[in-house]
From TrEMBL:
PROSITE patterns: HELICASE_ATP_BIND_1 (PS51192), HELICASE_CTER (PS51194), HRDC (PS50967)
Organism: Thalassotalea castellviae
The keyword ATP-binding is annotated on this UniProt entry: yes
Cofactor(s) listed in the protein's UniProt record: Zn(2+); Mg(2+)
Record gene name: recQ
Official protein name in the record: DNA helicase RecQ
Length: 592
């Protein structure tokens, strides 16, 4: 029966790892805690049981946009669902309760704050509820008081409905957070499913940040129409970067908590509908993202915790297709975060935050597989490299850096220690800027001696020389580079010097994987255009019609009959009847 329901409503012929066992526990009425990676299929664990239950499944979800998207998708799969949140009038809510009482709705999505409303809670008591599902359950512990206080009060469910099973679901929770979730919710002898945290389709890439805005623009332009998210730590940085990226001709929008709710909702909706290619955001843009075809996530500045990092990169590649998480690193960014943490008034909290940020700096400085480091942090111990991060693909190496160091130090000396990093590199590379001409630095003997190397190369070399104590920056003089006592032995060649080979940003690691995919790319592009037209006509995000993984299968197997189309993952009976004909017609036309 489960497989029949899975195929009929969701269009899949088999369960993903762990899903069937979780669903069976739910159907048996057990409390459960489920940890699955983002995109691992958590929502199916309560959506499928809802199609079997004679009563109602209540889903506690954090954001309005997320509820709306899920309800829209369920309706198009033939499952009756509704949501109750602040976007509705009381008359709409009353009508929904009438439909619930009449057995016309199987799934009801609500915000956690609703459970604090006495009259709403009385209304729930009158309904035949069979399951409470709590999505993003890590909010109960990890973000708790700071993010959503109502999540910390969800123990009211067991107090008010002691005999109804609770299913708590999250993608990221360390050992401490898991214990806290179980304790806070007061679950009874729960079934605990700990799936792998691994998202092998996401390539983890670290690159030195130099002229970060230009790096972002270059990176996004190479990805043409691919959707992506860029995370910054401050509203100011979000708006500044968004302005520069937009001026470069890229379709983008800013998003942060200081913006009007209507504007934020418009940005999120436009991104979901593929009308905006890139969103540049603070962490305010997070939990409500149900967009499956995000191909890249960039961290323009470091997150404060590895939990945050893993949550945020989890927005990418939810359809299982290749994606990339790019981290642009500048040690000045890390120093600013450390300073902010140390200014915190709560000593205990400050200590915890310093510990968590030290895990982020460990990730940044890793000389071994980055994914291995993250998985070990979440107590999913592994001894082997992933083969899909920059360390595995391009292992760190050292080289005889004496000559490179001498060029830099000589240049600093020749310009009388009066230039910062960027100015010094411009002299090395022979760039005739206005400032260089004014100061006569185009006349020094070191002008142009490093023109055979890139800007990023010299940036990485100078950073290492600062770390090793051969250079320092004069903060009182616009961060001008200065020689140190130790630099003299390098200039004279009196000691050997090994430097790390600069880790330069590769054009695109993950595209190599994607381009080997065995499907007709021209047909895929046509299918994508058709999907957008249908989605726009129905005023829904394109992935609700079919996600990219389904489109790639259509482009690969090219079905020309309804029966053949039902063999494609993600196409069930309802979606076939609703969308099948236009896609079949397009495929037939392309094949012929």
């Amino acid at each position: 029966m489960l497989l029949d329901k899975l195929k009929h409503y969701f269009g899949y012929t088999s369960f993903r790892k762990g899903q069937q066992e979780i669903i069976q526990q739910v159907l048996q009425g057990k409390d459960s805690l489920v940890l699955m990676p983002t995109g691992g299929g958590k929502s199916l664990c309560y959506q499928l049981p809802a199609t079997i239950f004679s009563g109602i499944t209540i889903v506690i979800s954090p954001l309005i946009a997320l509820m709306k998207d899920q309800v829209d998708a369920l309706k198009r799969q033939g499952i009756s669902a509704a949501y109750v949140n602040s976007s509705l009038e009381q008359s709409d809510i009353n009508q929904i309760f009438q439909q619930l009482a009449a057995g016309e709705i199987q799934l009801l999505y609500i915000a956690p704050e609703r459970l604090s409303n006495y009259y709403f809670m009385q209304g729930l008591h009158s309904l035949p509820i069979q399951l409470f599902a709590i999505d993003e359950a890590h909010c109960i512990s990890q973000w708790g008081h700071d993010f959503r206080p109502a999540y910390t009060r969800l123990n009211i469910i067991k107090e008010q409905f002691p005999d109804i099973p609770v299913l708590a679901l999250t993608a990221t929770a360390d050992v401490t957070t898991r214990k806290d979730i179980l304790q806070q919710l007061n679950l009874t002898d729960p079934y605990i499913h700990l799936d792998s945290f691994d998202r092998p389709n996401i390539r983890l890439t670290m690159a030195d940040k130099f002229q970060g805005t230009q790096q972002i623009i270059s990176y996004v332009k190479k990805r043409k129409n691919d959707s992506g998210i860029i995370y910054c730590n401050s509203r100011w940085q979000v708006e500044k970067l968004a302005k520069s990226v937009a001026e470069a001709g890229i379709s983008c929008a800013a998003y942060h908590a200081g913006m009007e709710v209507e504007i934020r909702n418009t940005v999120q909706e436009s991104f979901a509908k593929d009308n905006i290619q890139v969103v540049i955001a603070t962490v305010a843009f997070g939990l409500g993202i149900n967009k499956l075809n995000v191909r890249f996530v960039i961290h323009f500045e470091p997150p404060r915790t590895l939990e945050s990092y893993y949550q945020e990169i989890g927005r990418a590649g939810r359809d299982g297709l290749p994606a990339e998480a790019l981290f642009l690193y500048d040690e000045n960014d890390a120093q600013r975060i450390n300073k902010r943490i140390e200014q915190g008034e709560n000593l205990q909290r400050r200590h915890v935050e310093i510990q968590r940020f030290s895990a982020v700096t460990g990730f940044i400085e890793a000389q071994t597989c980055r994914r291995q480091l993250v998985l070990n942090y979440f107590a999913e111990y592994t001894q082997t490299g992933c083969g899909n991060c920059d360390i595995c693909l391009d292992p760190p190496s050292q080289f005889d850096g004496l000559e490179a160091a001498q060029k830099v130090l000589s240049c600093v000396y020749r310009i009388n220690q009066q230039g910062g990093v960027e100015h010094t590199i411009s002299v090395l590379r022979g760039q005739l800027t206005e400032k260089i001409k004014q100061q006569g630095h185009d006349k020094v003997s070191t002008f142009g001696i490093g023109k055979d190397k890139t800007l990023s190369y010299w940036h990485a070399i100078i950073r290492q020389l600062i770390h090793l104590g051969f250079l320092q920056q004069d903060i009182a003089n616009h961060s001008a580079l200065c020689l140190t006592q130790a630099s003299h032995s390098i200039l004279k060649g009196e000691q050997p010097l090994l430097l790390a080979t600069p880790r330069l940003q590769k054009a695109s690691y993950w595209r190599k994987t994607a381009e080997t995919s065995n499907y007709d790319r021209k047909l895929f592009a046509k299918l994508r255009t058709l999907r957008k037209e249908i989605a726009d006509a129905e005023d829904i995000p394109p992935y609700i019609v079919f996600n990219d993984a389904t489109l790639s299968e259509l482009a690969k197997y090219q079905p020309v009959t309804s029966h053949e189309m039902l063999n494609i993952n993600g196409i069930g009976d309802t979606k076939l009847s609703r969308y099948g004909q236009p896609f079949l017609a397009l495929i037939k036309e392309h094949v012929n």
